[in-house]
Design a protein that fits this description.
Layout: H1 11-17, E1 20-23, E2 29-32, E3 35-38, H2 44-52, E4 63-66, H3 82-85, H4 89-104, E5 108-110, H5 120-127, E6 135-138, E7 152-155, H6 158-167, E8 169-172, E9 176-183, H7 192-203, E10 211-216, H8 218-221, H9 225-233, E11 242-244, H10 249-255, H11 267-278, E12 289-294, E13 301-303, E14 311-313, H12 327-340, E15 355-358, H13 366-376, E16 387-390, H14 395-403, H15 406-413, E17 416-417, E18 438-441, E19 456-459, H16 462-471, H17 477-480, H18 497-500, H19 506-512, E20 541-549, H20 556-559, H21 579-582, E21 606-609, H22 622-630, E22 634-637, H23 642-650, E23 654-657, H24 661-672, E24 676-680, E25 685-688, E26 694-697, H25 702-710, H26 714-719, H27 722-735
Parallel strand pairs: 3-4, 3-6, 4-5, 6-7, 9-10, 9-12, 10-11, 15-16, 15-18, 16-17, 18-19, 20-21, 21-22, 22-23
Antiparallel strand pairs: 1-2, 2-8, 13-14, 20-24, 24-25, 25-26
Catalytic activity: (2R,3S)-3-isopropylmalate = (2S)-2-isopropylmalate
Cofactor: [4Fe-4S] cluster
GO molecular function, one term: metal ion binding
């Protein structure tokens, strides 16, 4: 008899297992999704898909929408309507489209006029929408943030957003388990941002590919929830699908009294806490990858190049190509130095800055603003700083900061005090860098053009960015404000009042749970049917020219820059593909050297990239849409960003992993000769089309191949198993009742849901709360 003893499981294994609706023999899993966050950029095409197929949102009670990427961060004092407030037409259309969609599909929405509006990854935890042990998704790569709660949280593309809206599930597979253990006390001036930048420097931007990272060790345990969120946020920059931290007392304390968490001391709360605390990795559980880091090796860390792995301690110098062994890295270094306008050997602290940005889903929470305020208190920003911005992560963070007088401290020092949004993290709104400008930024990505075409980004912690603003160059916070950087002892006390105040009136409650009184009648009323599937073109074989590229870490910002994400359609993006590389800066004139501007590659159907990690970064499905619109249906590379890899399949495209570099070079050589390739999916081989020579064979997951070859739309397939989804929902209601109705008892939300308001302590304006910082 086989043993009934369960093998030891990791935290990830446990959370994953509790959400399996169906598992096929080939490892394909239908995974139930507890929480779905929605924003304006990656949702319009998903809602359009629902409408076209007469589908409705399966669980409006588990869906929360807001606007963040495209909105101005200027004062909302004169805000009347979105139409009048947002000047830029494309951005306005995306926001008003979301407004229409939330009404039509009956979704909870924090709009521009709602104090709870903010960056999607800040408002979820703030409201208690994010809970331990849940699965959380969003059409956004930094959904990994929510893993700080011991949730399995990851970014998805727009087709998957549509899949979750329609079915409340996703089709996926198990990831690898990766452990990153950090032990010891963090040094003065070292925050969780420094820890995560250091980790990415160690593992590289592809280090976590295909894996879910569990962050553990005594240094992680000592971090506050907000600091843990900053770390999990950047798991995606380490290539991982998600990052997780096991729930503990810090987690439970943070959740107490959050509007959408179960009510403290209720039977549900007790049951939930028991479950949450059971979510930890069993002794002897197996990890596929293990990384150990000693806290004393971590200094305040800063990026020098155009990839988040390009980091050095602030005391370091700009590296040169000779500092790297591998050829791909040497070339990447040369390219990065050129783009960043830096010379190898320059001390980091001598690099002059133009702008400072403190904000983003990584570092725009109240603790971040407090940390920055402590550094700038009573000082002025340097004369050479043209603009320094503080952009709070949510309306509630802003309100709390104002109560503590942080706005005053920042404004007195010369910073702008803005409204909540993504802002200069990616510059989809008017907050951007001009070409050549250099910015100290608390965001998470330093890709070419990320904060504005030609802009140069250095990533760092809020305290380091504040120090840089004061000095005017990249600066060591330990020298600038030694008195403000004592390392934290134990877990900082968690402030709840920012998140709890103002929810006592019925009006506010109605707005939190913004069920529309009169939903517009665009959404279908009837239950969806499996046959409503839209279908996809079939992919059996492909013959065509293959454009060769030899760049490592081609990110989705490079494939399709942010200014083209403002569309509400999937089509028409081909002309914008690789825009910054394909056209001369500032115009529509083609760069003659770029491969897609050369014959015969203007007509490429395939792309062969010899550098690793193609499609890393953002979850924007606009990247595969742009490739497809150009005519490219197949990409061959040594490895891919996980979300991009998924997104291509959803669009009937085929990404092929060839990790044998010699084989890859052989394929690239044929494409460089201008000969056509033949990709035969049915037989899983790549041939030289001119002579039939087989160049490579490749692997593809059985289920994905089946869908491509037969042109199957997997929403339709999933809906065919709706009975299994219902069974899981029944189990969920029984075992995890707090997850229904956004944490309320109601099984199905009928109109606004009321919760009891709780009394909260107030903080006096003008006083910085004296509690330890996260370092
Ligand atoms: C717009 C969105 C798809 C994107 C992401 O997925 O990360 C954005 O948030 C970013 O940071 O680039
Ligand atoms: S990374 Fe930047 S753009 Fe993306 S969600 Fe976070 S704040 Fe917004």
């Amino acid at each position: 008899m086989p043993s009934a003893v369960k093998p030891p499981q990791t935290l990830y294994d446990k959370v994953f297992q509790d959400h399996v609706v169906e598992e096929k023999e080939d490892g394909t899993v239908t995974l139930y999704i507890d929480r779905h966050l929605v924003h304006e950029v990656t949702s319009p095409q998903a809602f359009e898909g629902l409408r076209n197929a007469s589908r409705k949102v399966r669980r409006p009670d588990c869906t929360l929408a807001t606007v963040d990427h495209n909105i101005p961060t200027s004062s909302r004092k004169n805000l009347t309507t979105t139409d009048k407030f947002i000047e830029e037409a494309d951005s306005r259309t995306q926001v008003t489209t979301l407004e229409d969609n939330v009404k039509a599909f009956d979704l909870t929405y924090f709009g521009l006029d709602d104090k709870r509006q903010g960056i999607v990854h800040i408002i979820g935890p703030e409201q208690g929408f994010t809970l331990p042990g849940t699965t959380v998704v969003c059409g956004d790569s930094h959904t990994s943030t929510h893993g700080a709660f011991g949730a399995l949280a990851f970014g998805i593309g727009t087709s998957e957003v549509e899949h979750v809206l329609a079915t409340q599930t996703l089709i996926t597979r198990r990831s690898k388990n990766m452990k990153v253990q950090v032990d010891g006390e963090l040094g003065p001036g070292v925050s969780s941002k420094d820890v995560v930048l250091h980790i990415i420097g160690v593992i590289g931007t592809a280090g976590g590919t295909g894996a879910v990272i569990e962050f553990c060790g005594s240094s992680i345990r000592a971090l506050s929830m907000e600091a843990r969120m900053s770390m999990c946020n950047m798991s995606i920059e380490g290539g991982a699908r998600a990052g997780m931290v096991a729930p503990d007392n810090t987690t439970i304390e943070y959740l107490k009294g959050r509007p959408l968490a179960p009510k403290v001391d209720s039977p549900e709360w007790k049951k939930a806490v028991n479950y949450w605390l059971s979510l930890k990795t069993d002794e002897n559980a197996k990890f596929d990858i293990e990384v150990y880091i000693d806290a004393k090796d971590i200094a305040p860390t800063i990026s020098w190049g155009t990839s988040p792995q390009d980091v050095v301690p602030i005391t370091g110098k700009v590296p040169g190509p000779e500092d790297f062994q591998d050829e791909v890295k040497k070339e990447a270094c040369v390219r990065a130095l050129k783009y960043m306008g830096l010379t190898a050997g320059t001390p980091m602290q001598e690099i002059l800055l133009d702008k400072v940005f403190i904000g983003s889903c990584t570092n725009a929470r109240i603790e971040d603003l407090r940390a920055a305020a402590r550094i700038v208190d009573g000082k002025k920003i340097a004369k050479n700083i043209k603009r320094a911005m503080i952009v709070p992560g949510s309306g509630l963070v802003k309100t709390q900061a104002e109560k503590e007088g942080l706005d005053k401290i920042f404004e007195d020092a010369g910073f702008e005090w803005r409204e909540a949004g993504c802002s200069m993290c990616l510059g989809m709104n008017p907050d951007i860098l001009s070409p050549g400008e250099r910015c100290a930024s608390t965001s998470n990505r330093n890709f070419e053009g990320r904060q504005g075409a030609g802009g140069r980004t250095h990533l760092m912690s809020p305290a380091m960015a504040a120090a840089a603003a004061i000095v005017g160059t990249l600066a060591d916070v330990r020298k600038i404000a030694p008195q403000s950087i004592a390392p934290a002892k134990g877990s900082p006390k968690i402030e709840l009042d920012a998140h709890m105040e103002d929810i006592s009136s019925d009006e506010d409650l109605d707005r939190i749970i913004d069920a529309p009184v009169d939903p517009v009648s665009v959404a279908p009323k009837s239950a969806p049917s499996a046959s409503a599937s839209a279908g996809m073109p079939k992919f059996e074989a492909l013959r065509g020219y293959a454009a060769p590229m030899d760049v490592a870490n081609i990110d989705t910002d490079a494939i399709i820059p942010k200014q083209f994400l403002k569309t509400i359609k999937r089509s028409g993006l081909g002309s914008a593909l690789f825009h910054a590389w394909r056209y001369v800066p500032g115009g529509d004139q083609e760069s003659p050297d770029f491969v897609l501007n050369k014959e015969p590659y203007r007509n490429s159907k395939i792309l062969v990239c010899t550098g690793p990690n193609f499609g890393c970064g953002s979850s924007r499905e606009h990247a595969p849409w742009a490739l497809l619109d150009f005519g490219i249906k197949c990409i061959i590379a040594p490895s891919f960003g996980d979300i991009f890899f998924n997104n291509t399949f959803k669009n009937g495209m085929l990404p092929i992993r060839i990790d044998d570099q010699a084989v890859l070079e052989k394929i690239a050589a044929v494409s460089k000769e201008g000969k056509e390739l033949e990709v035969d999916l049915v037989n899983q081989v790549i041939r030289n089309a001119s002579n039939g020579e087989q160049l490579a064979s490749f692997d593809v997951e059985e289920f994905r191949k089946h869908c491509l070859v037969n042109g199957l739309d997997d929403i339709g397939l999933t809906m065919a198993s709706v009975d299994k989804i219902e069974q899981h929902e029944a189990r969920r209601t029984r075992e995890w009742p707090w997850l229904d109705g956004s944490g309320y008892l109601a099984r199905h939300r009928k109109g606004p849901v009321k919760i009891e308001a709780q009394s909260v302590p107030k903080t006096n304006r003008g006083e910085i709360v004296k509690e330890p910082l996260d370092w």
